[in-house]
Design a protein that fits this description.
The chain is an alpha+beta fold. The chain contains two helices and eight strands, in the order H-H-E-E-E-E-E-E-E-E. About 6% of the residues have low confidence.
């Protein structure tokens, strides 16, 4: 499945390259390529943690399918997640079986992850590292 998607993505890129290059800025193209890289790599989020500058929202991806959300408190809200490559979405399913769909607005590995939550609020997150180690 991954190979088929990669083949289709490569063909679509080759076919649409002239139109894409003339209708989008370089920043828009780089953002699209970074998001595509996130989805093609599958587990790039695995083992990473992200936090807003004001520390009011954080998300950690403990492995390739689960993680924890921190929304204004230090209490972890466990979830499982799925990346949707067609819609640039991240679907979190919580332990009570409720779910939330977030849009991946921007992604640059080890630099920034921008997520738009289902409530319409957009969060710009940066890698979290434990500086006290």
């Amino acid at each position: 499945m991954k190979k088929k998607f990669l083949l289709v993505a490569t063909i679509m890129t080759a076919v649409s390259s002239p139109a894409t290059m003339t209708s989008c800025s370089e920043d828009e193209i780089n953002t699209a390529l970074q998001i595509l890289e996130l989805f093609l790599s599958g587990n790039e989020l695995s083992g990473t943690a992200w936090i807003t500058q004001d520390s009011m929202f954080a998300i950690e991806f403990t492995n390739g399918t689960s993680g924890n959300l921190y929304d204004g408190t230090s209490t972890a809200i466990p979830f499982t997640y799925v990346l949707d490559t067609e819609n640039n979405t991240l679907t979190l399913t919580y332990s009570d079986n409720s779910s939330e769909v977030m849009t991946v607005v921007t992604y640059t590995a080890n630099e920034v992850l921008q997520l738009k939550r289902s409530n319409g609020k957009t969060y710009e997150l940066y890698p979290f590292s434990d500086a006290e180690e």
